[in-house]
Structure formats: structure tokens, C-alpha cells
Amino acid sequence: MKFLIAALAIASAASATIQPPGVPFKSPVKVAAGFAANVLFSNLTAPSGIAFDAKQNLLVVELGLGVTAFSQNPISTSPVGGWERTVVVKNPSLSQGIQVDGNRLFVSTGKEVLVYQYDASTKSVSSTVAPYPIITGLPADGEFASHPLLLEPGRSGIAGAILVGSGPLTNIDLTARDPASGRSQIRRFVFNNVVDVFPPTPLPWDKGAVVAYGIRNPAGFAFPTGVSITPVGTNDLYVVENGASIDGVKGVTPKFANDNPADDLEFVNYPTNAVVSGTSVTGRYHGFPDCATLWNPTADPVGVPQYAGLPRGSQISLNLDNTRSDAWCRNQTNTRLPSLNFQAHSSPTDIKFFTPPAVANIKSFPSTLKDDAFVSFFGSFNRSPPTGYGVVHVPFPPASSDVSKLGYSFLVQAASLDTCPGSCITPVGLAFGTDGRLYVSSTLSGELFVIERSQFTTDA
Questions:
Q1: CATH code at 325?
Q2: Number of domain units in the chain
Q3: In a domain, 22, yes or no
Q4: Are the C-beta atoms of 100 and 53 separated by less than 8 Å?
Q5: Signal peptide: which range, if any (predicted)?
Q6: Which of 87, 103, 151, 347 is most buried as measured by Cβ atoms within 10 A of its Cβ?
Q7: Residue 221 contacts by C-beta under 8 Å, 6 or more apart in sequence?
Q8: pTM of the shown model
């Protein structure tokens, strides 16, 4: 009992709080063989997007609060060890997006991307330089306004561009067919035309290059780390997408919608040398709102029998437009097909690729997982039984969506899905540290945790 009380206590410092090790998950989790998962911090304010700074402080967007920094508290400076939390930015308007580039901290709100002058050594932002908008006019309304961010590395090591995601206006948003709508897409903004002025002139949303559209909710995206045959002057990108809720679609029964459509992993290839003038479309259409991915063809063989003979992963039309049929959706000249499918209602929220650390350690992910992807599943709201609520491993290149191959496996998942959401983990942000461990934010449970290799396993 004394140990439990000590473990649950959070000691206060002058400008920080410390949580000792050993605090359990609010709700039990199950972990894949060879791995372990441990809570770093509890009782946070809806932790969402996460990113490491140059000093390996983990920066976390706490929705409704701002940005906080987490650093490992050495046992030499504290009798309890554990992790220290410091408030870096107080801004309740922040959404999910966060990226760090040297002394620049990029964060998103519903309507803009802001930059703070940041010092990793002190875990603080400038008190003399006000945060400034780098991109303005983002769609601030709609189903999702999380606006994930991804910096595009430049040749000098300093980011030369940024990718920004945008969700739909409504669950099934007909305007998303038009790339000029700014909905359900990813846009790219180049910095080199504004760096000579400080603070730089904001880049308007409608001037960004559309690198992909028709992706309902591009919740997270990342550059693959493996060997690529990408054409010169282009980048590859993988995007996790939340499928639409189709309960109200004509011809769809509740039983069918309970297990359809799939959530998807989308592949994007876009040019990095395109000249942008106005809204430039440099990417492909990915099908939303007209097309969806079949997860369970036999979810309701009586009420919706027409798909029973199709394989999982088939594209189907939601019949919103008579000209966009099943055949139209399957024609790759019209839409780019997903690379992999996730179970319906899993709600993927982020993706990261693993690069083994320069110096191996016993807790780092095994080097056999090099260049594989890891995806967070927030979890379902309207599926019975619940699904998701975990972090999955996706071997790369991704397997086909054949029924015989799922293409991913859980590293960590809520132990009792029938109790979710409740106090279950709802993973959102992912970040690999230089220690080769995977750090995860859990929004609804208010937790920050780490996945690491079990000390009883070795590299294969």
C-alpha cells in the first residue's frame, strides 16, 4: 500500500511537476510478446500531437491547455526519478499539429499554423518574440480541425516546407471532390519565399499546393525511411485515413455499417519542384466522398448482399453521384487506391517509421523492425464490439489487403475492449526517441506512455 501511494503521488517543483515511475495504466493493456509498455505521466489534459526537440524533451499538445515538455528526471537530482512535466506554451486554441525545427516550434490551431521561438535547453518559448502565424486561413469548421503538420527536410538540414492536413466539412462532404474546397486534403507550403522577412509574411491557405485530396481525414502522415525508387524531384508520403460513417447512406443497413468501410493507409507521391501559383493541384484524388473501402463483405449478406462475393479492400461506391459507380471507384485512372486497409472504425490517428538508434540499447525496438511503420488507433465510437484502442505494427512494404493477410498486428491494446472507451487508452500522437523507444499520447485517458523492447528479448 505504501508503494502504491508513493507511486501515485506527483511531486511539485517550482515550475514543473514530477511523476515517479511505477504508476499503472488507468485501464489494463495487453502487450505483444517481446515488448513492454509503461506509463510516463498521468492526469494530463487531453494529450494529442507529440514531437521531440533537439534535447530529446518530448513536447506534447495538451488540448485546451497548450504545449508541455516532458524530460526524464535523473535519479541523481530526485530521489524518485520518473519524468518531469513543464508547461511551455499556454494556448487553449491549439489543435493536434506539432513539429520542431531547431528553435522554431510549429503548432496548429483551427485556423492557422503558428511559430514560437523555442529554446530546447530551457524548455521555454521567447518572452520577447511573440508567436507569429506562418499559414493563415485554414478551414476552422467541420468534422475535424486537428490540422496535423509535417516538416519537409531541406538540403541544409533546416525545413524548407511544411505539409498541413485538413478534414471534411461534414461526415460525407460533397465539396471535398473539388481540390479548391480546402477540405479532406493535404497542402504543401514552401518557406523559401518568406525567410528574409521577420516575422515572415503569412502564407494563405489557398496558395498551398494540393499534394493529395479526397482523403477524408488525413489524421497523420510520415515520410517512409526505407530504400525508395521515388523519381527525382518528388517525395513519398504515407497517410492514415479515417473512413466515413455510412449509417445514413441509402441502401446501407446498420449491420453492414457496423463493420464497413475500412480505414486506410494511403500512399502519396508528390513533386517538390512544382511552381505554385494560386491553388496548384500536384497530387491525386483518393476517392472521398464517393468511394469507400470494403472491410467485411459479408457483414450483412441479407440486407446488403451485393458485396458478399468481393474480397476485402475492394472499392465500392456510396452512390452519391450516378456517374461514380463501383466500377468508376475501382478504376485507378480516377482514384488512387489505398495501400492497406484497417478494420472499420479503428480510427488511425498517427504513423511513424522506425529507424534503429545509432547506439543500440536493451530497450530499443529490435533492428529487424527497421523501416517498418507503427500506427496509433484511437478506437471506435460506434462499433459493437469496440475495436482499435491500441498501437499496431505494419511491416513494410505493406502486405496486400487479401483476406488471408491482415497486414498489421497490435503491439499494445486495451485489455478489455468491451469496456471501451471508458478509461481505455486512446492513442493519438506517436514519436520515436533517439533511444529507439516509441512514445505515445493517449487523449481520453490523459496518459503518456512508452513502448519498449522487453529486457528478456534480444535482436533476432
A1: 2.120.10
A2: 1
A3: no
A4: yes
A5: 1-16
A6: 347
A7: 148, 150, 163, 165, 186, 237, 238, 239, 240, 268, 351
A8: 0.92
